[in-house]
Design goal:
Elements lengths: L3 H12 L5 H8 L3 H8 L25 H10 L11 H11 L7 H15 L16 E13 L2 E12 L4 E7 L4 H15 L5 E4 L6 E4 L5 E3 L1 H10 L2 E4 L9 H14 L5 E2 L2 H14 L12 H10 L13 E7 L5 E4 L4 E4 L8 E6 L3 E5 L5 E6 L7 E3 L3 H8 L10 H4 L2 H9 L2 H18 L1 H13 L5 H12 L24 H8 L7
Parallel strand pairs: 1-4, 1-8, 4-7, 11-15
Antiparallel strand pairs: 1-2, 2-3, 5-6, 9-12, 10-11, 12-13, 13-14
Helix pairs in contact: 2-3, 4-6, 5-6, 12-15, 15-16, 15-17, 16-17
């Protein structure tokens, strides 16, 4: 195929310079027929590319195309991850067909072409979805944060509004029903209204079962929540995350722009209040394709919100009739997380109220027994609230080693109690109960460690050591006096004069 410059040169020699075809062929070194073809050429439109279906591959591959196609067609009956790759096709041909001698590149090109013809790749385009004001999308993303210096691998819930591209975020320790409902209700309350429609994925916190034909069997708690606030819930088709692409993008955007560097705070509840205001300020920027500020567009979203209900929805979850073991402990999350109640509830049943942060243990009259920080994660964990146990054994000090509670105590506590006199154990246990109730069991353990160091086993010493460790009164450094204090001459004292005065004598004599 000659270039256009070469074709122009041949035609110019014929039409402009008067050379005949033979002379042109000799001068250019081209075949006579080639020169004649371009002299007589009348259509100079750029040719269309050859369609994929008409492309000709190396003739050497022709004998094997039907075999390759048969393997790829059979793949349609197998899982996506167990289908032929170009490498596997090439290796099979090399191993199973003795006369095969084509290159891997040629095989790879044909396999790519054949898969596209068979629609094995299923690279489907996405149609843009239109959203009206007042519609929202919700999803969780993974994030990390420091609370009181402890690194937590948590989640952030994002509620986005596709019309305006506004969004709001709440952080949580995990991703469960309590986190979802609590996060949504907090955002509703902050906005003063409820989205008319919210798009979700098929998380188990909401969906029990996907019904054939597109229906959903929802959990009772989510159904109650949805009906209480009056919004319509729309669930995505499985594997079609692009259907709620706005919130999918917002999950990453919020992490990159608001959670970097990793946030640090003392209390998650207060941080969640602050981050809502942070996302208000994020609206002071242009929409990515609409010719308006996000804040201006969000006014239409807010105007379309449903009013908040007059009655507050309790987002916590009540679990009744949990059986305890011989120490009054019970488990949640299929046995992964263990919590204590109190010795008097051993081998009985308790009720539990769960929210995103706390596990509150209740008696049969729904009065609080004890409260735990909620555990998260897939590994086995245990939370022990010692106040009820220490209070119990402080009233029964002689049975300490027979209750089983003694074996549950840290070794430090066991050693300390062993060295206490029997008459002191009751008071010591009572003080430890008070200290634990005041600042936690760890502070009681630190006090005991100090007491062991100073060999102090009496109740008063325990109180004093606790005060020195955890008192809010600052420890002042010694006062440096230098040479500021003058030296004084000692005052002479005559004791015989005092004796005479005390006896009623006359000192003037």
């Amino acid at each position: 195929m000659l270039t256009m410059d070469q074709i122009h040169h041949i035609r110019a020699m014929f039409y402009e310079q008067g050379y005949n075809i033979s002379e042109i062929a000799k001068a250019t070194g081209r075949d006579w027929k080639t020169v004649a073809k371009y002299i007589d050429m009348t259509d100079f439109n750029e040719p269309l590319p050859v369609p994929e279906s008409e492309k000709q591959f190396c003739p050497k591959l022709e004998p094997y195309k039907s075999l390759i196609d048969s393997w790829l067609k059979e793949d349609l009956n197998h899982p996506r991850k167990q289908r032929h790759t170009a490498t596997r096709v090439f290796n099979r041909l090399t191993d199973e067909v003795p006369e095969f001698d084509c290159s891997y590149r040629l095989v790879a090109e044909y396999v790519k072409f054949s898969k596209e013809q068979l629609d094995l790749k299923r690279n489907e385009g996405y149609l843009p979805l239109e959203h009206d004001p007042g519609e929202a999308q919700a999803d969780f993303g993974s994030t990390e944060f420091y609370e009181r210096g402890r690194l937590i691998s948590g989640k952030h819930l994002v509620l986005s509004f596709p019309w305006s591209n506004a969004a709001y975020v709440q952080l949580f320790y995990g991703e469960n029903s309590e986190c979802l409902l609590e996060g949504l209700s907090s955002i509703f309350r902050y906005l003063g209204g409820v989205p008319r429609e919210i798009w979700f994925d098929n998380a188990s916190s909401m969906v029990i079962n996907v019904i054939k034909g597109g229906g959903r069997e929802l959990t009772e708690r989510f159904t109650r929540f949805k009906e209480h606030y009056g919004f319509k819930a729309i669930f995505m088709n499985r594997g079609e995350g692009h259907e709620k692409g706005n919130v999918e993008n917002k999950v990453g955007y919020s992490r990159r722009n608001f959670l970097v560097p990793v946030p640090r705070f003392d209390e998650l509840m207060f941080y969640n209040m602050q981050i809502l205001e942070d996302f208000d300020s994020d609206q002071d920027r242009d929409h990515y394709y609409k010719q308006s500020k996000i804040a201006e567009l969000f006014e239409a979203d807010k105007a379309a919100l449903l009013p908040l209900p007059s009655v507050w929805f309790d987002t916590s979850r009540l679990i009744t009739g949990l059986k305890t073991d011989g120490y009054g402990r019970f488990t949640l999350e299929n046995g992964k997380h263990e919590y204590s109640s109190a010795p008097k509830y051993a081998l009985r049943t308790v009720n539990v109220r769960l929210d995103s942060t706390f596990v509150t243990v209740l008696d049969n009259d729904y009065r609080e027994i004890v409260r735990h920080r909620r555990l998260y994660g897939d590994e086995h964990q245990s939370s022990m609230e010692w106040v009820p146990y220490l209070d119990y054994i402080s009233r029964h000090p002689r049975s300490l080693k027979n209750t089983g509670i003694y074996a549950m105590m840290p070794q430090t506590m066991q050693s300390y109690l062993n060295n206490c006199e029997s008459g002191q154990k009751k008071d010591v246990l009572h003080i430890l109960s008070e200290l634990t109730d005041r600042t936690g069991f760890d502070s009681a353990i630190r006090t005991v460690e100090q007491a062991i160091r100073y060999e102090a086993h009496d109740p008063d010493s325990l109180k004093s050591l606790y005060s020195s460790l955890f008192s809010d009164v600052p420890q002042l450094p010694p006062l440096a006096t230098g040479n500021m204090i003058p030296e004084l001459d000692p005052m002479p004292v005559h004791l015989e004069e005092y004796d005479q005065f005390l006896k009623g004598g006359d000192l003037s004599a």
